[in-house]
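re: ur question from the group chat, yeah i did fold both. here u go
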Amino acid sequence: MKKVSIQGIKGSFHEDAARQYFDEEIEIVECKSFRGVCEQIDTDKVDYAVMAIENSIAGSILGNYLLIREFHLKIIGEIYIHVKMNLMTLPGVLKEEIKTIYSHPMSFKQCSAYIDSHFPNIHKIENQDTATSGKLIRDQGLRDAAAIGNSRTAQLYGLEIHDSGIETDKRNYTRFLILSKRSVPNELSNKASLSFKVGHFYGALAQVLNTFAFYKINLTKIQSVPVIARPDEYSIHVDVEWNSIENYEKAIHQVLKEVSSLAILGEYVRGEAAIHNQ
């Protein structure tokens, strides 16, 4: 049975992503932090890891790009999860009794319009993940608090859902990366995540982007990430997709001549951001 590390506990969106991606019986290894997730796979305690990298409302998680590079992990896949948020409490608690809401920082961002409208003066407490917030309310019997998370958290920990679909944008999804310590070749791969640095001269980045365009490589994401301990230096992270592997290989060969460094973080099959009811 495959072991898969996730940030958070059972009932979290990370567990949903892991179970949907592998579509088979897996053993979930819970971690308190994203660094812990990486350490588990780096020390061969698990086979794979699942890590959120961006949300359509809250944006990218820059720290996770740095962790992937730091631990030299390989991206072998991705999955998009439709994120439907719910406000939940212990059974019988009235909404007007809620004084505190617990959730993950990203979840607060995703539900900011709802919170501002319904709970403008609420005390918000950030937690390591949505499922942990729900479990905390159950374990401590908090009758003046609520959690924001997915419906599975409510089912697991016996909570009552007051409002469903409270995310600001109903087309809200989170992209999760599937990580391995080693590359897993796949002849069906049609997407890659790359990290590179360019020189400090006019048009350096544009030259690289034009190369991708010339070879008909679709650029689906571009993100600059600060280089630790090096002020004013950035690495450029891009996701590219292709219809022709030959064109992709030619583009990489040319880009190598145009950058000061290039790392292929992973080549994998593109995930689909299908929106569905959760």
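okk and heres the other one u asked abt
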Amino acid sequence: MGVVASGNAEARLLDFLKPAVAAIQDFYVLSGRAVRNLFRGPHYVDDIAIQMDVIGVGSLPIVILIGFFSGFVITMQMSRALAQYGATDQVGSIVAITLVRELGPVLTALLVAGRNASGIASELGSMQVTEQIDAMRALGTDPIQKLVTPRMIATCVMLPMLTIVADFVGLIGGYAIAYFSIGLTTTQYWTSAYQALEYNDIAQGLLKPFVFAFIISLVGCFYGLRTTGGTQGVGLATTKAVVAASVWVFVITSLITRVFVNLH
């Protein structure tokens, strides 16, 4: 009886793990095919341009808004702490380091994940349940080449640019508080911010959004292409894409930060 119970437990464990392992395997296959398509034609340049407009230009207003108020809040909070030590003139350096290293890339990636991973998953999911993707295969068009690779390229190009915009606008938001509330001069704030940044910080701040973009775009495409069950399945795929992409943003930023801390 004990052997039978043990065998049943192992079988249940295997049944539980099989879908997760299969999903990971499918994600790696999708990623490999999307990257391979970079080096072979056809390249759908028009689709890439459209996706760059949707992902980049479409996300610009919310990225500017969040970036500005991020710098605004960081400056307000840090000025209170630094005032105890008479070091409020260093607030610019703290805002610059915090935004460029961590908050700029992470907040921008989360916004893009929420806005575009969901959009990609719902768009491809709708195509999947209405059999448009099967029709593309029947006509001899590779869905990965046509649908996935342009979205991956567009996200990898636009997310670092959006991050740069968010960082700069965040510094402007910090300057607004530093100048009008704390009483720092323009020279004090911007000199402190400029001198605090090193090449290590800038490299870290640009590498993270590039990796985030790769993950966000492929996660959205992955869940979109696996959609089943009609309109309800589209909604479920959209939710899964946003959750998975957001979790991976935090996992990846932890790993990259760890690497750069060791290199410093």
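fwiw on the second one: DSSP finds eight helices and no strands in the chain. The chain has a mean pLDDT of 83. idk if thats what u expected
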